[in-house]
Design goal:
single chain; 414 residues; alpha/beta; Aspartate Aminotransferase, domain 1; Aspartate Aminotransferase, domain 2; seven-stranded mixed β-sheet; binds ligand 7TS
């Protein structure tokens, strides 16, 4: 195996976009990986190859192209199963992304199992996609949504979970494995084991975790797990919902249409086998194949090496950020409990002004509420600036970020 150091130096060459300049001939410094990641040639080429050489609809015809397309599509299902350590490939459903995955569960599981008076528990640091579907469901059913609070370190307060579980009314506990704003890594083992003891199902939003660390669903022991391909070098418009088979078998279909049926008659329909019952219509074939190439790419580097690279970068960045005048960094300082996502604010300077000054240097960070307004309320701010790292980022890029933040401090006389 190549040493982690060598492979990380070579990685940038695989990403054509990283060679371009932006604004006034500034080299692009892309630090918005929590939003979406850049794509390597291997992923771009896989999509290109599918359209040039294998394009056909899947699961429908016996001619050569259709067989090839079906095989390429189904290979990705095996790659996903292997990547997140799932033994049964039939539990893996292709969806558009984390958002669709959670909505599928809220619709197809929630409408069958949640009733008046029940409680769905989520957390204060969720993305809107793990709040709004549950609000829609609980409002429709006369059920309630409750929140596990967050302490000032950005960690979940698990006493809150105990309190809700003790009511005996909780039907589902859902939480993100890594916060998209603070980078906090949730104590999934503790949450899942408490829920198991109480006989309550768990859904984990893995959108920020799966791209950045080894995730083992067999070990995690949850019931539902969701993530998005575009945050892990894959294309947009493709994501994964995994559901434990015993739970999947209790769920009604989400979308009705082609491919999800066995037989359709005028007044009744029977369903296709799992997972096809949940994949109605012509799926996103090209992007499923692209996701397969992304998984190959990440697997070759090794998820433990990726986590270590981000620990190194984040440790370095946190140290340097602590020296920037007037800058406040949110979240825990314990690197074992956080990923490569850093949110910060200058007192009294709007994050959009910060992002604009940084952007003039070619540095892309996101400013705003990051689709986490419940968390913004908890932090008592309207917005933050956020830098988020991935495999191709370097310490030199962190230095550029720090220099531009020092400029912001100068401009605003902090
Ligand atoms: N869950 C988490 C934790 C996320 O960070 C995101 C997207 C989603 C769900 C939704 O994923 P999608 O692929 O369905 O859109 N997070 C972000 C972000 O932090 N900035 O832009 C998108």
């Amino acid at each position: 195996m190549q040493s982690a150091q060598t492979s990380f130096e070579n990685i940038r060459k695989d990403f054509p976009i990283l060679a371009r300049t932006v604004r006034e001939n500034k080299t692009l410094v892309y630090l918005d990986n929590a939003s979406t990641t850049q794509k390597p040639n291997q992923v771009i080429d896989a999509i290109n190859d599918y359209y040039r050489n294998h394009n056909a609809n899947i699961h429908r015809a016996v001619y050569a192209l259709a067989e090839e397309a079906t095989e390429l599509y189904e290979q990705t299902r095996d790659k996903v199963a292997n990547f997140i350590n799932v033994k049964n490939r039939d539990e893996i459903i292709f969806v558009r992304g984390t958002t669709e995955a959670i909505n599928l569960v809220a619709y197809a599981w929630g409408r069958a199992h949640v009733k008046e008076g029940d409680i769905i528990v989520t957390t204060e640091y969720e993305h809107h996609s793990n709040i709004v579907p549950w609000q829609l469901l609980t409002q429709e059913k006369g059920a309630k949504i409750e929140y596990i609070g967050m302490d000032d370190n950005g960690e979940l307060i698990l006493d809150d979970l105990d309190k809700y579980l003790a009511t005996g009314k909780v039907k589902l506990v859902t939480f993100s494995l890594m916060s998209n704003v603070l980078g906090t890594i949730s104590d999934a083992d503790a949450i899942v084991s408490k829920c198991k003891e109480a006989g309550v199902l768990t859904l984990i939003d893995g959108a920020q975790a799966v791209p950045h660390m080894k995730v083992d669903l067999d070990k995690l022991g949850c019931d539902f797990f969701a993530f998005s391909g575009h945050k892990m070098l894959g294309p947009t418009g493709i994501g994964i919902l995994w559901v434990k088979k015993s739970v999947l078998e209790t769920m009604n279909p989400f979308h009705g249409g082609g491919d999800m049926i066995r037989e359709v008659h005028k007044y009744e329909t029977t369903w296709n086998d799992l997972p096809y019952k949940f994949e109605a219509g012509t799926p996103n074939i090209a992007d499923v194949i692209g996701l397969g190439a992304a998984i190959d790419y990440l697997s070759k580097i090794g998820m433990d090496n990726i986590r270590q690279h981000e620990i190194d970068l984040t440790t370095y960045a946190l140290e340097k950020l602590s020296l920037v005048k007037g800058l406040h960094v949110y979240g825990t300082k314990d690197i074992t409990k956080r990923g490569g996502v850093i949110s910060f604010n200058f007192a009294d300077v709007h994050p959009h002004d910060v992002a604009q000054i940084i952007d003039a240097e070619g540095i892309a960070v996101r400013s705003g509420h990051h689709c986490a307004q419940v968390l913004m309320e908890r932090l008592n701010v309207a917005a933050t600036s956020r830098a988020s790292f991935y495999i191709y980022n370097t310490k030199e890029e962190v230095d550029k970020l720090i220099n531009s933040l020092n400029k912001v401090a100068e401009v605003f006389k902090l």
